[in-house]
Amino acid sequence: MYLNSLIESDRRHLIHPVSAYRAHEARGATVLASAQGMYVTDQSGHELLDAFAGLWCVNVGYGQESIVSAAAEQMRRLPYATGYFSFASEPTIRLAERLADLSPEGLTRVYFTLGGSDAVDSAIRFIVHYFNATGRPAKKQMIALDKGYHGSSSTGAGLTGLPAFHRQFDLPRAWQHHIPAPYAYRSEVGADDAALIAQSVAQLRAKVEELGAENVAAFFAEPVQGSAGVLVPPRGWLKAMRDTCRELDILFVADEVITGFGRTGPLFACESEGVSPDLMTMAKGLTAGYAPMGAVLMSEAIYAGIADGPDNHLPIGHGFTYSGHPVSAAVGLEVLSLYLEGGILANGQERGGQLQAGLAGLLDHPLVGNVRSAGMLAGIELVCDKAAKTRFAGEIDISGKLSAAAYARGLIFRAFADGTIGLAPALSCSEADMGHLLERLRATLDDVLEDKAVRSAL
Ligand code: PMP
Q1: Which of 59, 112, 113, 117 best tests ligand 1's pocket when mutated (most atoms within 8 Å of CB)?
Q2: Quick one: which of 35, 98, 128, 439 is 20 to 30 A from 163 by CA?
């Protein structure tokens, strides 16, 4: 009764992000009620192993009491402090210092946001400001990858390379451009890593040449493209793209909103190739979803370009009421200490090996065309014809079938519309829970294989 009225209320009033509104109303919400460790429980009492860490964010798992205490203590002492008018709070300063210490070499300055979208939007604004302030106002064109995701702000959504974020919103804007994603499984150069890297470099060069390097401000990329269906570029790709940007005199922005905080193994994915971007965006794992927060880090050169620009005596017209929120910052500090001192980062590295070994065993499944992974981040692409790599037709609604089957098996993952499964379990996952995750995943695939429409498409 109570649950029905909640669902009814949801139908009538709550607009859900990234959903087809009427289809959602018809389906009704799955109302989540509580969570502990790797498991969430919905209002009907059904327990689900969360293999997606909420939305790639709850990297330390649910129910971490030390985070709850840190937040409560900060709320009691000082629930809010603005960063305007030169005010600050201790946790915010300490978190900025810690992030500058931990992030790739050269990123010294930290601007806090509420999440990833406004971190990307802020990066865009800082870049525009930087080139205006340093006397190169023509440098305004920005390039990103097809299928990339850079958030849902009015500026970032145009750098996002997914049609669903452009349709209906008059995006991308004239200054936003895309080059193909390094998508080994569907690239004509296939598994030849060196050729794939050379191809991406050539595509970036060609785009910069077409626009004129004097007009190009920056190239944005996720080290692993999460929302694209977890596209993992070959080793060396990130460094090659970074070096190309330097050579072409354009800024390189690493969007580590998903890949940051141990998701791919190291604290930041850039570290695995010794890459130092000019700017880096982060969110999600920064507070592990316990409070909203994101950040954009920048190099000293960019900071100085802005700080010492011709209008340096005027306040910079960019800021949020909740920039550097002290409660989120206190949460972020505690989350960092769980990763580093608490051993969760190291645990994630070990569990990543277990995940990858388990997924390799899925390649013989009749539905599985491709498996790709980096640490605790994985994509499993389903096809109805392995030789031709054919995706299931839209009317089969493979993602709807996957989500329903996973729910019945007590599992949550991301089912992308194209039939790719996204996995991003908490880095705190135990060996036993990773075993359960892999078992439930195979059982889910077996169930979907039994579906009549799926069978007849094979
Ligand atoms: N960049 C990337 C790479 C992301 O994956 C996301 C979120 N999935 C964002 C930016 C936007 O972050 P948020 O949803 O916190 O605004």
Answers
A1: 117
A2: 128
